[in-house]
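Worked example 4.2. Below are the chains of a multi-component assembly; read each line carefully before continuing.
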Amino acid sequence: MSASSLVSVFTTIGIIVVLAVDSFKFFSEVSIIDFLTDTEWTPLFENKHFGILPLLTGTLLTTIIASLVAIPLGITIAVYLSEYAPKRFTLIVKPILEVLAAIPTVVYGFFALQYVTPLLQKFIPGLSGFNALSPGIVMGIMIMPYITSLSEDALRAIPNSLREASYGMGANRFQTAFKVMIPAASSGIVVSIILAISRALGETMIVAIAAGQEPKLTFNPLESVETITTYIIQVSMGDVPQDSLEYRTIFAAGLTLFVFTFILNNISYWVIKKFRQQYD
Amino acid sequence: MTRKHRFNSAKLQDNLFKFFALLCTGIGLLVLAVLLIDIMSKGLERINWSFFTNLPSRHFNESGIYTALVGMISLLFFTLLIALPIGIMSGIYLQEYGTKNWFARFVEINIANLAGVPSVIYGILGLQIFVRAAGLGNSILAGGLTLALLIMPIIIVATREAIKAVPNSLREASFGMGATKWQTTKRIVLPAAWGGILTGVILSISRAIGETAPLIVVGALVYVPFIPEGPLDKYTTLPIQIFNWTSRPQQGFVINAAAGIIVLLAFTFLLNGIAILLRNRWYNKIRF
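Applying the procedure described above to all two chains together yields the following structure tokens:
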């Protein structure tokens, strides 16, 4: 049975080795300095540039938009559900909101492209058909339940005695929630945010459908951008010859993405271990 | 006077937040409602028997999801065939046997990390290992293996949680009767944990049928006008068919995409609904 557990160890090793081997071959042809500093990403064109920055800014831009939607919404709802709402309300609303996280991402992609973008175009005339804003917002709605659910669990795990002590000092619900409960549950809330951001960084179908396929070094949310994940899909769907330099770009791009999510996941693991407060 | 004023502003603060929070909750619920209504209004007209039985076609009104459905079910079969035994055994081992040693801790960190790896990265792993190194090509088997690795952390974590929820008194009673560790695990702990494990398995199925990105990377085809007959055949799945229709410019294909989404969401909601019911029933049963 311990052998079955090895499968997950081998999966991790497999991911690292697969990404590292072909990235290594890639970096033997393209200098790592160019990769990190060149401002153009055009591996599939005649005039090839291999700068990851445009893909990185595209990824960060959509992730930031998603976070700006998901973090305030998610935490506000979590605080409301655990500190204000009648129990019955929470019991009904929480599972409905969690449905948002169960919807397949290709569905969100369709929704972003076919509904949200045309809707936004009514208010923002210059918005292009593919843009970072619409998939960013939709992605924010998708990751919001992760923050709500995990933060609400964290808030609920704080013993009632803290809440009562705060009320006893004459604090109202708002003060109790923001000055006592949130600080007490902060490690759980931070972890929920990190997990949600890591989800947004690696999200593929929403941005592949609605953000476009133009690698552009821009932080303008109204323009079309390409994310790392979209690029991987774009190459997978095209007919790039195997073992070519073009083919290996997806490994270098994948490695970049993996490093980001790996760091975030380890930070959250560390936060759980170090800062979890025990109230017994 | 000042005290009264402070009291009121505290109350006002409370009410303002309440209002804002209800607004936020409303936004979440509204988006869900708008999404469902939008897709229904676009796709419902295409849902009829021939949509389920037709092969994909160049003409949108003759196109159906037959090959995508068959592909999805065959893919799921291989995924579960691989992921279930390994995932459940691994969960049992980590929770019942290996909780104290360094290996179990290492595996635990690993699983926590794997659960956070973007699914498209699993696609790259599958592409190099199963499609190319193992020579499986763009086959159902390669896709199934890739998805199995993807959902395994979900099954492991669910198995562990379910086993953890089994009260210790049951184990102790069994040990007290002279049963060994394995007898206790097999005859007492697993039957008691079964409802929780099954819930996790159903949720992992729901995850697997909605996955798109890793399957595109391991080469699930966008256009498959035939039914896969063996594990080494090429295939397509419903989300990939939807993706393909979504990226076509003609309005007719957009309607097809919406209709495909209705079918996909029906599966997803059904599975999640079953999982929630099952979890509630099991949870009430296991709390003595």
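Take a moment to check your reading of the output against the notes. Chain B touches chain A through 84 residues (CB under 8 Å). The two ends of chain B are 55 Å apart (CA to CA).
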